[in-house]
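Record format v2
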Amino acid sequence: MSTEKVKEAIAKILPDVETVICYQQGFDGLHTTPLFIKIPEEINGLIWNPLCVQNLTSYLPSIKKKVGIVVKGCDSRTIVQYLQEGLIDREKIVIIGVPCTGVVSVKKVLREIGHQPVAGVAFDDNGNIVVKTSKGDRTLAIADVCPDKCATCQYPTPIVYDYLAGDPIKSDKPKESVHEDIRQFDEKTLEEKKAYWEKELEKCIRCYACRNACPMCICQDSCIAETREPHWISQKLSLTEKFMFHMIHAVHLAGRCVECGECERVCPMDIPVAKLKKKINTEMKELFNYEPGVDPDGKPPMYTFNVDEVKIKEHKL
Amino acid sequence: MTDIKNPYLPELATVLRVIEETPNIKSFQVAFNDPEKMKGFTFQPGQVGQLSVFGVGESTFVINSPPTRMEYLQFSVMKAGEVTAAIHNLYPGDQVGIRAPLGNWFPYEEMKGRNILFIGGGIGLAPLRTLILFMLDNRSDYKDITIIYGSRTPPDLCYKDELKEWEERSDVNLILTVDNEYPGWSKRTGFVPTVLKEVAPSPDDTVAITCGPPIMIKFVLEGLAQLKFRDEDIITTLEKRMKCGIGLCGRCNIGSKYVCKDGPVFSLAQLKEMPDDV
Amino acid sequence: MPDTGYLPKEKVKDFMRELAKDAVVYAPCLEGDTVIFRPFSEERTLCFDRPANSPPKSVIYPQSEQLFAFEYKKDPEDHQKMSVELKADTNVPGMVIFAARPCDARGFTIYDRVFIDTDTPDPYYKKRRENTLIVTLSCAEPSPGCFCVGVGGGPAHKEGSDAMMTELEGGYFIEPVSEKGKAILNKSMIEDGSPYLQKAQEAQAKAHEAVKNPFETDKLKISQDLFNNDAFWEEAVSKCVSCGACTYLCPTCYCFNITDEQASGKGERIRSWDACMFFHFTLEASTHNPRPTRFQRFKNRVGHKFVYYPEKYDGAIACCGCGRCIRYCPVSVDISEIVSNLTESGQKQQQTAGSAKK
């Protein structure tokens, strides 16, 4: 297990940074929560296991001091994107990368165990999570309860890091599989898609957890969801308002969304909001052959303008 | 089922007169459309009202005309956000909504027989104006009245006609100041807290009432403490973002006190009990 | 008439249909994995086996509601002049909240003090509250994050319920709490409850035992020193992302916004839930913000529930311990842990732990 290696790396960098952002056990066996390590004694509170799902990098732009951070492959894409957009100073961040074979979706586990209270959780050597409840133990293959992003993960090893806790892993998932779900969804008729999104977005309570947990949502306190100037969205609870917010959220992330899935993970009403962003990424891939968060020197296509853009039909007229 | 008064429903009113006080402050004299409502309306100096422009929203302002002069209610509005910009676009005859009176008021009964010191800055003279006029209308109830008032430049002084009147009265001591030298200005210059130090009014049997920008209030409070004013004798009126005006919506609280309902008037002694900065 | 009732499981839907004859019945329904209170209809799938993701607060206190409609009208005499017409409607149909959890019902009693027991009662809330019958379902076991017993409630605490059901093997034992609740025992599907009384009491006692109390003493004593220590808050909530999940899912959070919406001369003034966790909540037109940081906002949220509200209302705590803010927090902020650390005993524990470290 990488836990000891992560702890070693943190101990090594701690004298050089203000704080190290990593994970600790949360309020029950299934939940982890961020840990901000400032002194060596606090390293013992760290845990590292497939329940360490949160993308911790979203804290980076608001921290001015030098920090250390523990990232998985998927999380590292956020750092790459931040670097592209000049939102962080690479000199002020020490990255401990951890190769990852897939994490656990708490929502999927809860669905499997019938939303029972969880007494404890263990991991065996065969890639399973063992969930203890008052009705007995349930053994689930992590591959069966991982977030969708893990099933097609192309970057199990972080793209940028200063220390790597573990040996690099190569992805065994075919590249074509990444956009498979979106292409399948695209086959639905317009009416079916409309009905699907109306049903899902109707559940939205406008808590903005998706926005605030999103590492790339940089408007934050000036978000049009709440401003009166411009007054694009009212405080009514109609489907129109909810649609408008989620569409703007998705469009603002065009070519920038690193598909960490935080928006969907944190939604208290289980709305598949990440699908909207992924759809746009699929289009970006097709139009511009661009993938966000993999090349520190790249530029999001929507930040550039090329009159001869080959893939846009109108330009060929 | 009980029928209770709807505290969210404004009373309709008409703008009677608009006065341009400064480049970005206008006063609005309004009267309720229902003459009976106007006749029966009572309030205390220091209480506030919610002024509505329907379609844009509501904002809170002190009723700065005194309860002793009830032909209209006056609100002075500095242009800052969406609602105040809409109010600035109002002309005589336009319709507005009013929810008033709201909040508490200056403890003028307890001030009877004492010296009164007003210290105001900019638009901060508005809440003081209601009490000043009220006291002038009941002049014999109070001893010396001193007013220290300042603004950035002479054009930024509010209520210029009244300032002239007060200056001419022998029973009011008005001290005006502007931040810097200004062409044609022959009176004092300097920030209000500095002028307060220069004037150095005696704390003996005196109540100080202050309102202005937060930074001015901060230094005025320090100045009054140096002059040995007691915390109980220092009174200020606070401004916070408000919505409901009746202590429900939760945004104007300082600890357990709601500025809209428990305030806006607080003594320094009360403010010191509060868990957060104001 | 017997004092208690019993509803066989196979008659639950009949009973709900009966209630739906003269009221809109809101019940926890399953949509995907999410449990939401919805107006009961035959196509819906009821879900009683876990608390709903969102509490039924919106039934009585809608997330967004019209306070009044306005319309500008041209004066027929003088076309330069406009008059305004206002229309407010506080009428609501009869409603039933069915199978809410006891904590959810208790939440309404916390609102009642604010919205009804004041010199300016809120007519919208009051009408809805008066028109709603609340039938709760006691909890058989705690959900993750639950701590109702720590704030004076419990899995079968009756405050706020009109009647309470307790699940037994073949049906539900029903205890009326209010006069309104007593009336439901008259319905034809309800049998005499007395044979089931003991079993129900045993189930309730067992459930009570299972809920954790995160606080050491019965009476929460918040340390003023810690509460007013900025460093405590910065440390405790540095991970908070300042979203509104905790407040919108909270059965006791009630802060709101009032905004105008208009199109071509007419529109409405609406009241909608707001969250003290949002930067915009206290932002003033001058751009001054009295609570600009996340920790100040979080302090206000905890303060409102555990310090300010008790100060105003005889020590009553404005938290029902439902655990939703913990369960659904994007980053697992645990309010019960924070409050526990804020208590005087918690403070002592931290000091001992701190000195041991050194």
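The CA atoms of residues 146 and 173 of chain B lie 5 Å apart.
The mean pLDDT of chain B is 93.
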